[in-house]
Every structure is written in C-alpha cells, then in structure tokens.
Amino acid sequence: MDPTDLVEVTGYHLFMDDGYNGDFTIVYNGTDKPFTAQYTAVGLTIGLPYRFKVQSENINGLSQFSEVAEIYACLKPFRLPAPTKVATTRTSITIKWQEPVANGCAI
C-alpha cells in the first residue's frame, strides 16, 4: 500500500456527558455505518450545556477523540413582539423591539 492512499472510515462513535460536566458515555456506536454522521439526543434538560466528542473508525482501529463541543439544550425564543417606530426623518427610521422570552438559555 502506498502511504498516500486513503483508508476509508468504517464508522463513527459519539460520546456525550450528562449536562453536569460528568463523565462521557457512548451514545452512538456507528461501527459499519460510515454514512451516518448525525444523531438526535433526546431526554435533555433545558438550559444545560451538554458536551460531545467523536471518534472515527477504520481498519486500523479508533482515532483519537475530536475536540469537545459544548451545546446547550434550548427551546426557541417565543413571544416576539413586533418592532415599533421611534422616529423617522426623510432619510432614516429608528425602530425598537423587546428581547423575547429566552425559553431556557441566555439570548
């Protein structure tokens, strides 16, 4: 084999913590599923920061872990009031709006 040949990925493994900076556990084992690169985490607590890391796999074994990604479990903001006009001139308009309800995370 030429050292410049690429070795195909045969799967990915996703690890996640508990949202409280706890230990990582495997939540997806993608052995022999190289085309799956997506996972939906369920049962999360709104407002917590969950940490994720990934390993890839090929015929030589598992890679090193990726860098850790921290992602908050949040719902979409809601109660978005319409903007209101403050002032106008011939060439400008000033508007204002209220910050929406955060719904679990800082905006």
Task: Give a verbal description of the structure.
This protein is an all-beta fold and 107 residues long. It has two domains: 1-73, Immunoglobulin-like (Sandwich), CATH 2.60.40.10; 78-107, no CATH class. Helix content is 0%, strand content 34%. It has no helices and seven strands. Strands 1, 2, 3, 4 and 5 form a five-stranded antiparallel sheet that branches.
The number of domains is 2
> What CATH architecture of the largest domain would you give?
Sandwich
Number of strands: 7
Tell me roughly what share of residues is in helical segments: under 10%
Q: What coarse outline follows from CA principal-axis ratios?
A: elongated
Contiguous runs where pLDDT drops below 50 for at least 5 residues: none
**Number of helices, counting only DSSP H or I runs of 4 residues or more:** 0
Separation, N- and C-terminal Cα atoms: 52 Å
The major beta sheet can be summarized as: 5 strands, antiparallel
Layout of secondary structure:
Blueprint: E1 11-16, E2 25-29, E3 49-58, E4 61-62, E5 69-72, E6 84-88, E7 93-96
Antiparallel strand pairs: 1-2, 1-3, 3-4, 3-5, 6-7
Short description:
The protein is mainly β. It is built from no helices and seven strands.
Tag the structure with descriptive keywords:
5-stranded antiparallel sheet; Immunoglobulin-like; two-stranded antiparallel sheet; 107 residues; elongated; mainly beta; 0% helix; single chain
